[in-house]
């Protein structure tokens, strides 16, 4: 529902219109673009793994698992490194 169509007080009191506030976990299912936006330090990890994901238009479609397979990299090793910088 669009908050602009709700009465002022109702828009503020309905948290569902803002989506989940829960912190998302870094998993193999998260897109590369989401990882780089949520955890900017992850850019260095992708570069260290010699992945061309930074600036790649496919980053919004590929998740970490797909990107690691595309680049013939161990997905769990990549995920471990990403998690280490995500804190």
Write the layout of secondary structure elements.
Layout: H1 8-13, H2 32-38, H3 42-48, H4 64-70, H5 75-86
- Put simply, the count of helices is 5
What is the strand content? under 5%
Shape label: globular
Low-confidence stretches: 1-23
Helix content: 40-55%
The total beta strand count reads 0
Count of structural domains? 1
Would you tell me which CATH topology applies?
SP0561-like
Major sheet characteristics = none
Shape-level CATH architecture: Orthogonal Bundle
* Global structural class: mainly alpha
Average pLDDT, rounded to a whole number, is 81
Q: Please identify the top-level CATH class.
A: Mainly Alpha
- What is the H-and-E element order? HHHHH
How far apart, in Å, are the first and last alpha carbons? Answer: 34 Å
Rg from C-alpha positions?
17 Å
Superfamily (CATH H level) name: SP0561-like
Describe the structure.
- The protein is mainly α and 87 residues long.
- The protein is 45% helix and 0% strand.
- The protein has a single domain (24-86), classed as SP0561-like, CATH 1.10.3910.10.
- The protein has helices at residues 8-13, 32-38, 42-48, 64-70, 75-86.
- It starts with 7 loop residues before the first helix and ends with a helix.
- The relative contact order is 0.17.
- Residues 1-23 have low confidence and may be disordered.
